[in-house]
Specification:
The complex is a heterodimer of chains A (311) and B (313). Chain A is an all-alpha fold and 311 residues long. Chain A has twelve helices and no strands. Chain B is mainly α. Chain B folds into two domains: 72 residues, no CATH class; 219 residues, MetI-like fold, CATH 1.10.3720. Chain B contains twelve helices and no strands. In chain B, helix 7 packs across helix 8 and helix 9 packs across helix 10. The N and C termini of chain B lie close together (10 Å). The chains are: A mainly alpha (311), B mainly alpha (313). The interface between A and B is large, with 38 and 47 residues.
Chain lengths: 311, 313
């Protein structure tokens, strides 16, 4: 298992890296939304990004099977050894296998991304729809709060929250989630305000639909396409933020491996083991890039399918 | 114009009070007795009592907050729990390092970003244009602190072109000062440079479609003259806004870059204060960051009003 196998093997026309995902010519699997999947799969960059993220999820789930060594097992006799047949990516300052730590690190990164994005989504989406739907003082109040949060440097806010709540990955991700909440709020609010005075919304209210039903059945579908993009970009931001916080020693607790804490190790052993710098950074970079491309592809597809619909 | 600037300033001031209040509320809600946590391992009752006294933990939240605000307005941000130094002195001493880093990064970002955007706009849709567009969108995904590590590893450790770590003030000579800031400046400036390149290129694209540019072309002006004289001036405005928003993020990014390059700046102070739960220092850092962001946003707003009189009303 090398770095290259985690890699999506970027565009290789002879190879079909699509795997189980149906190719562009396959029948669409979602009969209610014909064409969305086809539309998503039409862009090669989106497919490559999706395959990379799928591979990453598989690696994270199967980490105990894939990792050649225990990621926390120390062997001081083989400290800071360069890449070799036994340790493909070398060993760190405690003699731990860098490849195994990289593989296990994907768990922390993905889980951290999900946590932070989940927090931001759960807070930002309902508040945004509420502010856009209800309007008046609630809209003004919530918008002011979110603007204030947005103009505070995100890492500073996250550092403050970690300082107060204590370190550890869950607190760190709660912090990042809070910092990202205004993004979801803004998009949800704007989407809601766009359709707030459409005839079908007024009709739904006039027909006696409850506010809840109107919001969930009629407003939410309009807000979702841009939210999908925000989710994807936020997953990337969160992976990057977790790495920053863990690098600063404010994220994961040693000896748990994370890409950020691996870079911390690499930073303090730079002259003796320059090879340690590359793999975790490349993984963070590719993961952030993949989430960005995936989000962009899905957004394009959703916008296209919506505008193409007759109703 | 002055009245407009004043109004913007008044609207921005509440933020200076709200952000520290949030920190106070967070500290108040944090689990455990703060005094015991702060006193470290095996604390004596006297130590706990003195921290209690110093932080005024026996007073209600609102009293503590107003006490802090009143002192802060007079320039007194309390003393560090760790070093017993005045917080304001700590901040001022380290400010020069962080500001130098942010300055070099932003200057580099504007220069590199602008040059790339202008070169791209010379031949829209050409190879260089498409390449820069692609490279800039990819560069945005690179974590700044990792880029800093890679640069340090390559150009300071392996090939010793630049001094590896630390910082020298400008009093040691401009060249020395700059040599310590080149690598961290590039690392921190990569993201804003990519954004300036993308934004300015897209703004130039819009401007170059207008009638007066067509007119200039008809007059027989060369492409470089059109881009530089007619395009750049009008395309610069949206880019200023983007830069303004970026300053907050660059300031935040300087925290990790300072750690990578072991620079004695505000970021290192902040991380130390978090690790030691040195609340007065942390509050000082938060206040300082908020002031910078508020000031920059204000400048952006004012520049908006200056360029576009319609905004003023």
């Amino acid at each position: 298992m090398t770095e290259q196998e985690v890699d999506p093997r970027f565009p290789d026309p002879g190879d079909t890296p699509v795997g189980e995902v149906p190719g562009p010519d396959a029948e669409p699997e979602l009969p209610t939304r014909p064409g969305i999947l086809r539309s998503i799969l039409r862009r090669r960059s989106t497919v490559v990004a999706a395959v990379f993220i799928l591979l990453l999820i598989v690696v994270a789930l199967a980490a105990p099977l894939l990792a050649p060594y225990d990621p926390t097992e120390q062997d001081l006799l083989i400290r800071l050894q360069g890449p070799s047949g036994a340790h493909w990516l070398g060993t760190d300052d405690y003699g731990r296998d860098a490849l195994s730590r990289l593989i296990y690190g994907s768990r922390v990164s993905l889980w951290a991304g999900l946590q932070a994005t989940g927090v931001a989504l759960i807070l930002g989406l309902p508040l945004g729809v509420l502010a856009g739907f209800y309007g008046r003082w609630l809209n003004v109040l919530l918008t002011r709060i979110m603007d204030a949060m947005m103009s505070t440097p995100s890492l500073v806010l996250a550092i403050t929250i970690v300082a107060v709540l204590g370190g550890g990955i869950t607190n760190a991700m709660l912090a990042i989630g809070l910092v990202m909440t205004p993004r979801f709020f803004r998009v949800a609010r704007a989407g809601t305000m766009d359709v707030r005075h459409e005839t079908y919304i007024e009709a739904s209210i006039a027909l006696g639909c409850s506010t809840w039903r109107t919001a969930v059945r009629h407003i939410l579908p309009n807000v979702l396409p841009p939210i999908v993009l925000v989710i994807s970009v936020s997953l990337g931001t969160a992976v990057s933020a977790e790495a920053s916080l863990s690098f600063l020693g404010l994220g994961v607790v040693e000896p748990t491996p994370s890409w950020g804490s691996m870079l911390k190790t690499a930073s303090s052993n730079m002259s003796l083991a320059p090879y340690l710098v590359w793999p975790p950074g490349i993984m963070i970079f590719l993961t952030v890039l993949a989430f960005t491309y995936l989000g962009d592809g899905v957004r394009r597809a959703l916008t296209r399918s919506r505008s193409g619909r007759q109703d | 114009m002055l009245r407009y600037a004043g109004r913007r300033l008044l609207a921005a001031i509440p933020l200076l009070f709200v952000v520290p209040l949030l920190v106070f509320i967070l500290i108040d809600r944090a689990p455990g007795d703060q005094a015991v946590v702060l006193a470290g391992e095996n604390p004596t009752p006297e130590r706990i009592a003195s921290i209690r006294e110093q932080l005024g933990l026996d007073d209600p939240l609102i009293v503590r907050y107003f006490d802090w605000v009143v002192h802060a307005i007079r320039g007194d941000l309390g003393t560090s729990l760790l070093s017993d130094q005045r917080v304001i002195d700590l901040l001022l001493r380290r400010m020069a390092t962080t500001m130098s880093l942010v300055l070099v990064a932003m200057v580099m970002a504007v220069l590199v970003g602008a040059v790339l955007a202008i070169l791209s706009a010379m031949r829209p849709g050409g190879f260089f244009d498409r390449f820069i567009n692609w490279a800039a969108s990819v560069a945005i995904a690179i974590p700044a602190f990792w880029f800093g590590l890679v640069l340090a590893s390559l150009f300071a450790v392996t090939y010793q072109i630049f001094p590896p770590f630390g910082y020298q003030p400008m009093s040691e000579g401009f060249g020395t000062w700059l040599s310590y800031l080149v690598l961290p400046g590039i690392a921190l400036g990569l993201l804003p440079a990519a954004e300036v390149a993308l934004q300015l290129r897209s703004a130039l694209g819009q401007v170059l479609k207008t009638d007066y540019v067509l007119n200039a072309e008809a007059k027989g002006l060369s492409r470089p003259t059109i881009v530089m004289k007619h395009g750049l001036k009008n395309a610069a405005i949206p880019v200023i806004t983007v830069l303004g928003f970026r300053v907050a993020e660059v300031l935040a990014g300087s925290v990790t870059i300072e750690i990578v390059y072991n620079m004695p700046g505000l970021g290192q102070l902040a991380v130390d204060s978090v690790q030691n739960r040195d609340i007065p220092v942390l509050l000082g850092f938060v206040l300082f960051s908020t002031i910078v962001v508020v000031l920059v946003n204000l400048l952006v707003d004012i520049s908006y009003g200056y360029f576009n009189p319609k905004v003023r009303s």
